[in-house]
Amino acid sequence: MNKKGFIFDLDGVIVDTAKYHYLAWKELANSLGIDFSEKENEQLKGVSRVRSLEKILSWGNKTLPQDEFTRLMASKNEEYLSYINKMDESELLPDVKKTLIFLKMANQGIALGSASKNARYIIEKVNVKDMFDAVVDGTDVSKAKPDPEVFLIAAKLISRAPEDCIVFEDSVAGVQAANRANMISIGIGSSEVLSEADYIFNDFTEISEEFINTLINN
């Protein structure tokens, strides 16, 4: 059987920790008397922590001394981590584990390629750490997606050529990174948003074993 490499993004693909970022930012904004809803949260997606806090302050027409700004950023992260600490296997998105087990049984290379600095901790909490042959997270890369760095490092760690790799992604930048790396891109989410992906599914419940076998044998 052919040996391919399957690279998974973390957030929105394996688990949904975006909701915890939302709750942590909401708590921070509200503590400053600033309104924060899903609408504002949309504008923080894929944005750094520093830039996110700057945006929130600008919405409330507030300025803070540097030490207070730094303290608030740290407290947001602690709040976020307190949610992560409570995660367990029930937080895995539907049929992700089934797909990982199928790939493992088929003897394929499996890697994680995520911008999250908490990626290793999260896959341990949701009990899939042993499924991955390699993990590349925010501590291993210097360039953010759509730069393909994260996926190219992952391919190297599982000893696969980029063109023999398949990437599961839920963001436009992630799909673009996979395409730039010359890998097959599979979008998980909305076909309108992820139109640049080679294949698009709402979630893993729509991905059949036949389809995965086609990818392996292609």
**Helicity range of the residues?**
40-55%
Any idea what the CATH superfamily of the largest domain is called?
Answer: HAD superfamily/HAD-like
- Determine the N-to-C terminus distance: 11 Å
pLDDT averaged residue by residue: 95
Q: What is the number of E strands?
A: 6
Largest sheet: 6 strands, parallel
Label the CATH architecture of the largest domain: 3-Layer(aba) Sandwich
Helix and strand sequence: EHHHHHEHEHEHEEH
Remind me, CATH topology of the largest domain?
Answer: Rossmann fold
Helix-strand makeup class: alpha/beta
Radius of gyration: 18 Å
Dominant shape: elongated
Strands of the widest sheet, in order across it, are 3-2-1-4-5-6
Number of helices: 9
Can you identify the CATH class of the largest domain? Alpha Beta
